[in-house]
Amino acid sequence: MNNLETEAIIEISQQDFIDNALNKISGYPLFNIKNYLGTMFYMDFGQPVTKSRYSPLSKKQVEFQCGEIILSIRDCPWIIQTGKQVTLNSHEDYEDDEFDLNFKPLLGRKILKTEIVQQNVIFTFEGGVELICDVSGQTEDDEYEGDSSVIAITFNSENEEYSHAYNLGISEQLAVEFTCHQIK
Fold first, then answer.
1. Closest CA to 153 of 62, 49, 53, 43
2. Please, which pLDDT band fits residue 8 given cuts at 50, 70 and 90?
3. CB of 111 closer than 8 Å to CB of 44
4. In sequence order, what are the beta bridge partners of 122?
């Protein structure tokens, strides 16, 4: 039995990223959000999906739950705002419970609209709350510079053999790159 994941990576256009990832995340309710490694976090949307994966630590298949759609944000500055009032931003250090408390009002809400405006990807939730991610790769902080996957949107299904992860990344030359990862 092969316990390793296989992955195919396909370069796609910005329009493909918008059509196949950004536009498809709209309309699904947020049911879970969790931060990890400082300012990185992920959001689970839709219904819970049970997946299994080989764990090298336990040397066996383990089951876990995730969303039909997972939105991961990492290695880029971001803010959460309502109107012009910022409630959270990536430049602050938050304790887990403080992070969870600030995001709690978003649980159950749907993304109404997603768009790319200049060097920002904007997710607008019900109630006018916006998650704005700066994907320029040009910040005052060295921690965000180049060669990273900034926004990943993964589509999971219990019935499909593959998951699809659409990535917006920043190359070492600070160019925005779009890819689709097909993961078995």
1. 43
2. low
3. no
4. 115, 132
State pLDDT tens for residues 15-65: 888 888 888 888 999 988 887 766 778 888 988 888 777 778 888 888 878
Check pLDDT > 50 for residue 167.
Answer: yes
Q: Select from 125, 132, 133 the least CA-distant residue to 107.
A: 125
In angstroms, rounded to a whole number, what is the distance separating the alpha carbons of residues 87 and 177? 29
At which residue do the structure tokens 């060295």 appear? 142
Does residue 40 sit in helix, strand or coil? strand
Contact 30, 44 (CB under 8 A): yes
Q: Tokens 């992920």 correspond to what residue?
A: 42
Strand order, beta sheet including 148-155 = 7-11, 176-183, 163-170, 148-155, 60-73, 40-55, 30-36
User: Model-level pTM greater than 0.85?
Assistant: no
Neighbours of 144 (CB within 10 A): 21
- Provide the 8-state DSSP code for 21: I
User: Is 3 a residue whose pLDDT tops 50?
Assistant: no
How far apart, in Å, are the Cα atoms of 177 and each of 43, 50, 151?
A: 22, 30, 11
Q: Phi and psi (nearest 5°) for 20?
A: -95, -15
Count of beta carbons in the 10 Å neighbourhood of residue 98: 13
Edge-to-edge order in the sheet of strand 120-125: 85-89, 78-82, 129-134, 120-125, 111-117
